[in-house]
Amino acid sequence: MSALPLRRTPATPEHPSPPSTVDASVLARLSAQFAATAADHDRSGAFPRENFEALQAHGLIGLVAPAEHGGGGATLATARRVISAVARGEPATALILTMTYLQHHALTRIDSRWPPHLRERVARDAVANGALINALRVEPALGSPARGGLPGTVARRDGSGWKIDGHKLYTTGIEGLSWLAVWARTDEGDEAAPRTGVFLVPRNAPGVRVIASWDHLGLRASGSHEVVFEDVAIDLDHAVDVRAPADWAPDAGSQTDIDAHATQQAWMTVLLGSLYDAVATAARDWLVGFLNQRAPGSLGAPLASLPRVQEHVGEIEALLRTNRVLLDDATAAVDRGHAQPSADSGLLKYTVTGNAIRAVELALQLSGNHGLTRQNPLERHYRDVLCSRIHTPQNDAILVAAGRRALLSTGAAA
Questions:
Q1: CA distance 30 to 205
Q2: 48 close to 130: Cβ distance less than 8 angstroms
Q3: What does the angle CA 266 – CA 359 – CA 309 come to, to the nearest 5 degrees?
């Protein structure tokens, strides 16, 4: 499948550059606009191109890009507000935008090894043209690199540049991306040990081929298809961050490197947590309307009048409030420059996504067959919120890391 380029809306007086703050009324309008077509995108799986055109028209694609390159330089709190609003309308759009925001935030990290001119190029492309970027990491044989192992995707030295061959899975947003941050290992000839890292590949480079394989239960419009690289040529400096494999360990490098990694992890878990919490909030909103309107003849009053129903809605409220408190706390810590350790970010993801799933499950219990009907959005919210489990780090890795840390600290104290 050949992907159509995203129609660009350049920054002009009518289409402003990224704002330093985001008006709540703008976010409310975008959320309602995206919600109006969310079911259509879910059924067709079509890339939500018009949603990104609307985001660009309000300067929101370059919101997190570095301010020195024309971006908004947004705080995590501001980015979170945008992702939450978009996700309440159409979560696949929010997921693709989240991945771009994470890559743009990485450009601002003090430990970034990207060449300055490429950092600027990617950032300015987002601001001026709405260019999207995502990391391509998962492979058929390797799975997620978070579990360890060398990638099968290989970048070979070829004269004054690189040639890339490989196969990637779950390339979220590929139909609208302009830049691909490809995880690969090097083949530099002779007996040089392979290095691993990120290679910046233009989406329109010859040899980049998309296999339209994404047919998922949830987040169907995310277009997370497969991508094959066949002898793709890039310049030498597009090996933007390549290191010895051991140097990629979270605790490798200086304390500055460790802190920067923890901040990046916190951004990821807060934005993804906010996305799925917003899906659960949208489910709650639909449920409240349904319960207030549904009045069975045998009851002679709306379902909302029943104490049992009120109790379960109260449980949903408790789950969502817990999420809000945890996400607010983590966001404030990051924006003060005190991101929690990566292990704690994992626990945040575990708790927030678990609460979001439970909230939608309760909504389904209360709504019965109505909630499972395709003409109502609740079953779609349930399919979407279940996707929260698959993002790195997965639950088993989160709990093992937290348990090991607790056992070691307790043992040391004893």
A1: 33
A2: no
A3: 155
What is the CATH code of the structural domain delimited by 136-246? 2.40.110.10
**Would you state the pLDDT for residue 411?**
62
Fold type of domain 255-413? Butyryl-CoA Dehydrogenase, subunit A; domain 3 (1.20.140)
Which two structure tokens, joined as six digits, stand for 76?
Answer: 């995590």
Burial 222-246 (b: 16+ CB within 10 A, else e): bbbbbbebeebebeeebbbbbeebe
Query: What's the pLDDT score for residue 42?
Result: 97
pTM over 0.90? The answer is yes
How far is residue 81 from each of residues 21, 23, 75, 180, 299, measured CA to CA in Å?
A: 10, 10, 10, 26, 40
Structure-derived torsion over alpha carbons of residues 223, 75, 346, 42, reported in degrees to the nearest 10: -20
Architecture per CATH, domain 24-130, reads as Orthogonal Bundle (1.10)
Strands 132-136 and 161-171: unpaired
For the stretch 379-403, pLDDT in tens is 999 999 999 999 999 999 999 999 9
Confidence of residue 412 (pLDDT cuts 50, 70, 90): low
Structure tokens at 106: 């990485």
d(C-alpha 9, C-alpha 53), whole Å:
7
Of 89-93, 340-344, 388-392, the one with minimum mean pLDDT is 340-344
pLDDT in tens, 109-143: 878 899 999 999 999 999 999 999 999 999 999 87
Cis amide prior to 393 (ω within 30 degrees): yes
Q: Where are the domains of the chain?
A: 24-130, 136-246, 255-413
51 pLDDT exceeds 70?
yes
